TrEMBL record:
Residues the entry annotates as binding Mg(2+): S232, T252
Taxonomic lineage: Bacteria, Bacillati, Chloroflexota, Anaerolineae, Anaerolineales
Quaternary structure note: Monomer. Associates with the 50S ribosomal subunit.
Taxonomic source organism: Bellilinea caldifistulae
Name of the protein: GTPase HflX
Gene Ontology cellular component list: cytoplasm
Domain of life: Bacteria
Subcellular location: Cytoplasm
Length: 447
């Protein structure tokens, strides 16, 4: 009698309880309910099933458990009732809070925060060597102060085995009086240093590549926006590209660059970058420095905004804050109000356009408004001139000559070891002169 072959089974999804805290005097960018809804989307992207939500309003965090002791007991009962594996907090927990909560909830329940959840999603979606290195660095820097267990947990995370951690090798022997925890911490620090060295090589390679693009005089347009706003769909529509698109958060992590021809025949490079989100972990901003430089080095930003989202304005502010944090406040920006194909009220669209100084209504999916967007890109990069005053070192003769050739010079005079030029430049050249906007301090001999 033939045996029946068992059907392959899917790995069961982890099950989680979400916890949101409303701190009085420290309101988040989104209302608590909306922030928890976003956390639920993050959990779904990480293939975690949400079983319930718990919220609390606090004057200040509890020094031991962040939330009140009564709320801890309430969550513990809910975890036991639902047999949840995870408790996910919508705010970043300190190592102490995390340890205390895990002790209260029991050994079988893991406590993580929004940062750890986003790191998990990034680890799932990183596909290039650069992306994997960046995520691994962020993971280790987040994990180091929270290290309480033996090294084997991290060995599994990085694909090692038998006491090894991927490419780092074994943890080695302990010295006299040295605890296993100290050995583990030293090994993580060593791994962090190696990852930073490798990423610095990536950064240098990207910088050389960008310099080659600059020499070709082709302007760079960076697509920025909240995660899932439609940046990749827009790049696909503009460049007939095949960038991976999915209706989920952080579907793409690695930058993709494509050539696009503008209406008057000019060629520009459009770059799709990693999406932003409120409470974006600082570890990710630091680890993704090489990738984010694609934004800081751009000649123009197109901020793609999902105008149909109920928290569109808050998402816009979250992106603007991140751009400010990475030093992009002086780059010209167009706001592309995306997904207008879902809006039948033309007056609502007109009103939304009026909230931004340079905006275009588009649908990346249907192509509506894309010719207008490309015309606006062309106007800013090649036709509109922006007033600037720059202080250029005499050794940068090429930049000085370029200003005189393509810009409009109103005033040019010596300023110590620099030449001060006041005038205006086309948008495509502004980025090259940004390092020279600040007035230098004259040498003592010049005072």
């Amino acid at each position: 009698m033939a045996k029946k072959i068992a059907e392959p089974t899917q790995t069961p999804r982890e099950r989680a309880i979400l916890v949101g805290v409303d701190l009085i005097g420290d309101p988040g960018l989104l209302p608590l309910e909306d922030s928890l809804a976003e956390l639920a989307l993050l959990a779904d992207t990480a293939e975690v099933e949400v079983l319930g939500e718990v919220t609390q309003r606090l004057d200040k965090p509890n020094p031991d458990t962040f939330i009140g002791s009564g709320k801890v007991e309430e969550i513990k009962m809910l975890v036991e009732e639902t047999q949840a594996d995870l408790v996910i907090f919508d705010t970043e927990l300190s190592p102490r809070h995390q340890r205390e909560l895990e002790e209260r909830f029991g050994e079988q329940v893991r406590v993580i925060d929004r940062t750890a959840l986003i790191l998990d999603i990034f680890a799932r979606h990183a596909s290039t060597r650069e992306g994997i290195l960046q995520v691994e660095l962020a993971y280790y820097e987040y994990r180091l102060p929270r290290l309480t267990r033996v090294w084997t947990h991290l060995a599994r995370q990085t694909g090692g085995g038998g006491g090894r951690t991927g490419s780092t090798g074994g943890v080695g022997l302990r010295g006299p009086g040295e605890t296993q925890l100290e050995v583990d911490r030293r090994e993580i620090r060593r791994r962090i240093a190696r990852l930073k060295e490798e990423l610095e090589k990536v950064r240098a390679h990207r910088q050389r590549y960008r310099e080659q693009r600059r020499r070709s005089n082709i302007p760079i347009v960076a697509l920025v926006g909240y995660t899932n706003a439609g940046k990749s769909t827009l790049l696909n529509s503009l460049a007939r590209a095949e960038v991976y698109v999915a209706d989920q958060l952080f579907a793409t992590l690695d930058p993709t660059t494509r050539r696009v021809e503008l209406p008057a025949g000019h060629t520009v490079l459009f770059t799709d970058t990693v999406g932003f989100i409120q409470k974006l972990p600082t570890q990710l901003i630091a680890a993704f420095r090489a990738t984010l430089e694609e934004i800081t080095e751009a000649d123009l930003l197109v901020h793609v905004l999902d105008v149909t989202h109920p928290n569109a304005w808050e998402q816009w502010k979250a992106v603007q804050q991140t751009l400010l944090d990475i030093g992009c406040e002086n780059i010209p920006t167009i706001t592309a109000l995306n997904k207008v194909d879902r809006i039948s009220d033309t007056e609502a669209i007109r009103k939304a356009l009026g909230q931004f100084t340079s905006s275009v209504a588009i649908s990346a999916k249907t192509g509506e408004g894309l010719p207008n967007l490309l015309r606006e890109v062309e106007n800013i990069l090649f036709e509109n001139f922006a007033p600037v005053t720059v202080y250029i070192p005499y050794r940068e003769g090429q930049l000085i000559a370029q200003f005189h050739e393509f810009g409009k010079v109103e005033e040019s005079q010596p300023f110590g070891e620099y030449i001060k030029i006041k005038g205006s430049l086309p948008g495509r050249l502004l980025n090259a002169y940004r390092p020279y906007l600040k007035r230098p301090t004259p040498a003592k001999s010049e005072v």
